[in-house]
Amino acid sequence: MSQHITCRHRRLFLACLSIICIMSASHAAFAVDQNVADGCDPKVMANSQKKAQARVCADIAVTEQLITKPRSVLELICFNKLATVASKTAKDIFSGELDLKIIEDALKAHYENFDEGAEKDNDQTKVSSSGSYTCDKMDKAWEAELDAGISKEVPTIITDADLMVDTPPLCDTDDDGKAEEACGGDFNAAWQACADKKVFEDYRKSVEEQTPVEVPDLSNCSGQGSAAVINASANGTTCSE
What we know:
By secondary structure, the protein is mainly alpha-helical. The chain is built from nine helices and no strands. The protein has four domains: about 1-35; about 40-70 and about 150-210, no CATH class; about 80-135, no CATH class; about 215-240, no CATH class. Helix 2 (about 40-65) packs antiparallel against helix 8 (about 200-210) and helix 4 (about 80-90) runs antiparallel to helix 5. About 15% of the residues are buried.
């Protein structure tokens, strides 16, 4: 009988001890929560995303002006010549050669999908019966970029303030040390395309919506140690006297 009572007391004691432990842990967690700094303002993340979009637009505008790109990568490998060689060797696999006019028609239709259309001299669409393949398009593309050197048709630097304005930044095209002239046409066109999509306007608005930064008063932190300075900075207070 006494053993039974002792077991009941033991279970009651353990139950009370568990409740006390849970309450103590909850109180400690609550106390910690009161001292934890607030998380990052979502507007800061949104601002970072808007700035990244504006910066990408600026980089694309510079690329459009500086790098001469073909309408299609097929131009860089002289695909018309490559297809001709393939048609000549097709007879080793199939019966007869491929009709070369099929290649010409297909390439003309392909290049017509681009803004500039097919080349007037048909250099990239005509095929030859020689069946030989040489291509210097890629070499010429690199040579053109090297010969261009440092372009004056793009801004020397694009500032954060430039990324908030729809109007393209100016360039120093006459080399007088002042950015007062319009930049290259391709740069301005690409910049305006992003402006039409409100990329720069959205970034400007996101900056204006940011919560002003509160600068803590650290004037009395001299000699307090780095821990005191960090604590004061995090909590927006001053160092203790």
